[in-house]
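Project standup — Tuesday

K.O.: blocked on the structure for the chain from last sprint. Re-posting the sequence here as requested.
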Amino acid sequence: MLLQAKKFDVSIRDNDMFKILLVEDNKQYRVILKKVLTDNIQNIEVDEACNASEALNATYETSFDLIFMDINLNSKVTGLDLVKIIYPNNPFTQIAILSNQDVDEYRTIAEKNGVKYFFTKSESLPSIIHFVNELILLKQLKLKIQ
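H.V.: unblocked you, prediction finished:
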């Protein structure tokens, strides 16, 4: 008797879009990243927040699968401060830090607050696309197992 591996349909259902929030004060970078993501990845919904207050409001209104969080938001509240507020209320949301600088202190603070992913803004956009695709695949597999 031959055993066949079960084939997984890894397309996300329309009602199960992969939701991303971009928290970035630099409008140009935010627009570019959103365009790159939406042009290269299917079945995603990308919302934007340009400051801490917009980010918090967005997380109160929507359950995101992934948040790209800038550290310097040109306000008293940093992206690292937001992580401390958002993670306890959204434990299943993945947060990826975006920073202009790869500073060990930032990484350490982020890791202590549950962040597993850290990208510098100079990293190639294809590596960010690959990262998002991997998270989508993980979500799809979890949905199939349930």
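K.O.: great, moving the ticket to review. The chain has one domain: 17-145. The CA atoms of residues 29 and 121 lie 9 Å apart.
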